[in-house]
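User: Second chain of the day. Same drill as before.
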Amino acid sequence: MLPYGRQSIDPEDIAAVEAALRSDWLTTGPEVDRFEAAVAARAGVDHAVSVTSGTAALHVAYAAAGIEPGDEVVTTPLTFAATAATAALLGAKIVFADVDPATGNLDPAAAEAAVTSRTRVVAGVDYAGVPVDAPALQDLAARKDLLFLEDAAHSIGSTLDGKPVGSLADLTTYSFFPTKNLTTAEGGAVVTADEELAARARAFKNHGLVRDRSLQRTPDEGPWHQEVHSFGLNYRLPDVLSALGTSQLTRLDAFVARRAEVKKAYDEALGDLDGVEIPFAPEGAAPAWHLYPLRVPAERRRAIFDSLREQGIGVQVNYIPAYWHPVFEDLGYQRGMCPVAEDYYRREISLPMFPSLTDADVESVIAATRKAVGA
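Assistant: Same format as last time:
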């Protein structure tokens, strides 16, 4: 079965991990610092805080934003549940706003209509790797005194108007899961240009520990002394995984280029199929295509999906609208709230998209898709 996504590991990656394993540090060591510096440079900002997953990155980012019980977070339903769940775990009420029908990204007008006096964060998701309309969302955040968070789990390596994803929002989160644009096996990061937000993020991911004696309440306790001033968690990414990430970053441009080649081949071969919509990117966006979200007739989506699986093409669907999950239904969220997102979901199938796809693999996917859609 050809998977819809997978990691791309080469001998240099393996050597980097082996070197870390043979060093004096398995965690909280120099490889973490090196990886964070490389991520920050790629994002075009001063600060990167590495964490154990993309979900952890979201949790850390919302904590850094100061989300508390009673606050509201406006976000998209066309995403994995973690975008909303991590804010809900901090006590926030999640307010879902609909998406742009062309990109699947949060619609800035819908987001603005959802803002209330209790809104603290507007969180967009770069669906499939296409950057959100960052200028519009940043303008909304500035006018309403909000923080703009960009969930860039799909889009490290993407740019908008020549600016890298990571430099477009107040806070940006990355995921380094194996299917993403680069991997640390499990891992993620929060990036920001704001020193205070970075300090809050770094504290939360390390139990809230304070080691700076000038900030401690009882600094004379002893040289071993450390204090917890606010609750945090252990979301530290180890050196072994950081070493893998630093190695992967050196090939990110090649990964992005190959994804673009695969996307172009799919577009050219599938764009003429009746009832099918190929993925769209707005002017100025240069996506690192994490997914290839093909949209097919809703009434035939299941049959097309089953046909592709039967032909050995491991397609996926991304995503069930977040508020369809029982955990949100039990809180009173109802289907029909965001009809554009629900229509997008009902028609979406993710075709295989990863850098190590061969040209023969791509041709196989194309032939199987044309057969499934035309059947």
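Residues 252-374 form a domain with the Aspartate Aminotransferase, domain 1 fold (CATH 3.90.1150.10).

User: Great, on to the next one.
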